Amino acid sequence: MTPNRLGCHGSVSTHVIKNDSDCKKTFPIALCMGGSLEAIRRLLRGRGGIEKLLMMDISCDMVKLCKDAEQQMPNDNIETSYIIGDEEYLPVKENSVDLVISCLGLHWTNDLPGAMIQSRLALKPDGLFLAAILGGETLRELRIACTIAQMEREGGISPRLSPLAQVRDAGNLLTRAGFTLPGVDVDEYTVRYNSALELIEHLRAMGETSALLQRSKVLKKDMALATAAIYESMFAAKDGTIPATFQIIYMTGWREHHSQQKAKKRGSARVSFQDIHKQFSS
């Protein structure tokens, strides 16, 4: 599996780290999983009181790339270790880290709920989980063009892109994994390309095409040209460029701790929604 490379990684990393910096709590030991490791490493400097950073990726090449980049960064007194590991089988002990970060890596896991449970178990009580994943609206233009081209040429549909989680699923995933105080945020980025074929080549280089076992492993030339023609006829701008949408879902969750705020018991409210409605209506 090729490490993913999105042009919006820098913006996504900044959003994730901004969520960390908005919190006044310190996180002495942090684990960064997959995705844009080098960008996360650069943005973490001086944030969150981090003293020890564990950089983990399933790709040996990505880990080596991060090690090489470390030599070019200024010394920020953060002890950094590099680990080759899988998000679904974290090579860290339970209750061992204060912060878990994942930036555009978790959408590649076969068992996303299981990977998030692994992250929760790795956190200490009151530890924070921050993640950004590609959402289901990502590349919607390409999905539509592929579907129409396949129906016309082959009379059926074969998945060309990996399935992605929807926004409505994100909160359920956090709750299912056992996180408390779950939070979900969404951003959309539009990247413009000169042609649909250029977009397809870019996705292949990033390793962001379909990874499903039952996928069709060959993209025929006539199918690629038909997809590109439909894409451009439906979505091209006046200047000839075509848009590609990337939806980013941000997820925040905490490991349970007695100090965290808790919801009041049902029926304990002193103000009704009718009173609130009347107040705002007036």
Q: Which key features would you list for this structure?
A:
disordered N terminus, 9 helices, alpha/beta, 282 residues
What are the SSEs and their pairings?
Elements: H1 9-22, E1 29-35, H2 37-43, E2 52-57, H3 60-70, E3 79-84, E4 97-103, H4 112-122, E5 123-134, H5 140-153, H6 167-176, E6 180-193, H7 196-206, H8 221-235, E7 242-254, H9 273-281
Parallel strand pairs: 1-2, 1-4, 2-3, 4-5
Antiparallel strand pairs: 5-7, 6-7
Helix pairs in contact: 5-8
Folded structure, characterized:
36% of the residues lie in helices and 23% in strands. α5 packs across α8. The chain has 282 residues and is of the alpha/beta class. A 7-stranded mixed β-sheet has the order 3-2-1-4-5-7-6, with helices on both faces. It has helices spanning 9-22, 37-43, 60-70, 112-122, 140-153, 167-176, 196-206, 221-235, 273-281, and strands spanning 29-35, 52-57, 79-84, 97-103, 123-134, 180-193, 242-254. It starts with 8 loop residues before the first helix and ends with a helix.
Spans of at least 5 consecutive residues whose pLDDT stays below 50 are: 1-10
Task: Tell me the series of helices and strands, N- to C-terminal.
Answer: HEHEHEEHEHHEHHEH
Q: How many helix segments?
A: 9
State the secondary-structure class: alpha/beta
What is the beta-strand fraction? 15-25%
Number of strands: 7
Biggest sheet strand order reads 3-2-1-4-5-7-6
User: Quick one: overall form?
Assistant: globular
**What is the radius of gyration?**
22 Å
Helix proportion range: 25-40%
* N- to C-terminal distance: 58 Å
